[in-house]
Design brief:
This protein is mainly alpha-helical and about 525 residues long. It has 20 helices and four strands. The strands form two sheets. It has a two-stranded antiparallel ribbon with strand order 1-2. Helix 7 packs across helix 10. It is globular, with a radius of gyration of 22 Å.
């Protein structure tokens, strides 16, 4: 199916148009700015839903393609398209963005700039999922860094300091985005060089052309330093791609930027960071590493599986050891994304088998499911922080009688994160474990240690916040969750339950894409 109406371009750049329109609105009209951003962000969501229903699962290749000459001299084009993998991520992005904007209605300072950055961030994320040109992919990959850096730096937590070299201390909300930027850009440097090498060698950055030319290639031309061996080029490019995406996921031990960024980010920033930005790395593995470097991916699949299991175990243990509610949820993302990477590693090791397809189905569905539950958990942490003005679990406790509705929602969301049967997390984690078990039996068995401690840290969080003796300091100060906050979390709750009971509507799209691709 072609993109004769440029539907993908409209989805991609509509947030930019809304952001530019907001520039001309008066700064003091905060309510107007919030509603323009919210209503503007609902348009890509509506278009994505339309795209979902027009999509034809199982059709080989990409659909709704749009291709225009962009930088012909170097063989780069403006080329967009979707398959079942990218479509699910587009739907997740366009769903979470208006939810996060609505969650941000409490922001009082520099509302125009805040909403503008959020809309730019949405375009950056969507561009990664929609691009079918490597250079265009990289442009959008980098665009997403800038808005998140400023969202954390300008609207992040005002408490806390971090010690740097020479004993000097700086605000934590300055340290965290700087660390986030440095880590990601360190990986991006190698990624850019590898992309340039492929573009020069093949004379094109177009992914469809690369996918078709790569298997038949015997040598590459115009590579500097006299490197003509295709195997050498593949090895260099594979590691450049893999490291960049591993940092973004993040895979242990590249994960240390994540808890700091989450802790200092505003609530909505954490929702998008966990809900979508982490998925860019996993998407990179699925879209680029496995198709372009199948032999290298198979050779080093065991290494990737080991790192995934370490992320699952250490992420769960680290989450259990936290006293800061937000850091607990942050480390849980390392744990849950480990299952995504385990599914990818299993698929790399046994590409073409039914077990590999099952593992990939679980990995992609886990990306979507984690986006829902992690965004919900970070939002609920923000709700209680706005009322209690603390995230210290040792200072909370006994709040259930004061906030029974909030407590019920928190338990529901926590059970989804836990992987309780009947909710979405169980379906995706079960598929990953089922697919990976015949391929990496020992690693999959070890991952169950992390699954055990997942239950431990989830129950710890619930107990410390809702149960036990009430801290009398909060009596009369902690109020129930309000209507706007319920509206924010309701779509997440509905989807979590819907996928848990009937996952076929999304698995049908994902499974056909994975079967065609791998």
């Amino acid at each position: 199916m072609t993109g004769s109406i440029n539907l993908l371009t409209l989805i991609l750049f509509w947030p930019v148009l809304v952001g530019l329109a907001m520039v001309f609105l008066p700064q003091q009209e905060k309510k107007l700015l919030r509603w323009v951003a919210l209503l503007g962000s609902l348009v890509p969501l509506g278009l994505s839903i339309y795209l979902w229903f027009q999509f034809e699962p199982g059709t080989p290749g990409f659909q709704f393609e749009e291709s225009f000459a962009w930088y012909q001299v170097i063989g780069s084009s403006y080329h967009l398209g979707v398959d079942g993998l990218s479509l699910s991520m587009v739907l997740l992005t366009t769903l979470l963005t208006p939810i996060a904007i609505l969650a941000s209605f409490g922001i009082q300072e520099r509302v125009k700039a805040y909403m503008f950055l959020f809309l730019m961030l949405e375009t950056g994320m969507l561009g990664v999922f929609l691009s079918l040109d490597l250079l265009l992919f990289f442009v959008f990959w980098e665009i997403g860094l800038v808005p998140m850096y400023f969202l954390i730096n300008q609207w992040g937590s005002e408490k806390g300091e971090r010690e740097i070299w020479g004993g000097r201390k700086i605000p934590a909300r300055t340290y965290a985005p700087f660390k986030f930027m440095i880590y990601t850009m360190a990986g991006s440097l190698g990624l850019l060089l590898a992309i340039q090498m492929l573009g020069v060698g093949f004379g094109t950055f177009d992914l469809k052309e690369l996918f078709s030319a790569w298997p038949a290639a015997t040598e590459l031309k115009n590579i500097p330093l006299g490197v003509t061996s295709l195997e050498t080029v593949k090895a260099i490019a594979f590691w450049a791609f893999a490291i960049a995406f591993a940092i973004k996921v993040p895979v242990w031990p590249f994960h240390t930027w994540l808890p700091d960024a989450h802790t200092e980010a505003p609530t909505a920033g954490s929702m998008i960071l966990a809900g979508v930005l982490l998925k860019l790395g996993a998407y990179g593995f699925l879209r680029l590493v496995l198709p372009l470097y199948p032999a290298e991916a198979q050779k080093y699949a065991g290494v990737l599986a080991f790192l995934a299991v370490m992320a699952i175990i250490f992420g769960a243990l680290a989450a259990y050891g936290q006293d800061d509610f937000k850091r607990l949820v942050a480390y849980s993302s390392v744990n849950h994304m480990g299952f995504v990477v385990l599914g990818i590693a299993a698929a790399a090791k046994a590409a073409g088998t039914q077990d590999a397809v099952i593992a990939l189905n679980g990995a992609v569905l886990q990306m979507f499911n984690h986006g829902l539950s992690a965004a919900g958990m970070f939002f609920l942490v923000g709700v209680i922080y706005e009322r209690a003005h603390t995230r210290n679990l040792n200072e909370l406790g006994g709040l259930f009688p004061l906030v029974p509705v909030y407590g019920g929602i928190l338990i529901f969301m926590s059970m989804a994160s836990l992987g309780l049967p009947g909710l979405n997390g169980f379906v995706s984690e079960f598929l990953v474990v089922r697919g990976a078990w015949p391929i990496f039996t020992v690693y999959t068995a070890l991952a169950m240690i992390g699954l055990f401690f997942t239950g431990a840290y989830i129950l710890k969080g619930i107990k410390k916040v809702l149960h036990g003796p009430l801290n009398e300091h909060f009596a009369g100060h902690v109020t129930e969750i309000n209507l706007r906050e319920i509206v924010v979390v309701t779509p997440l709750l509905v989807l979590i339950l819907w996928i848990g009971i009937w996952p076929g509507w999304i698995l049908n799209v994902i499974d056909k894409a994975m079967s065609v691709l791998f």
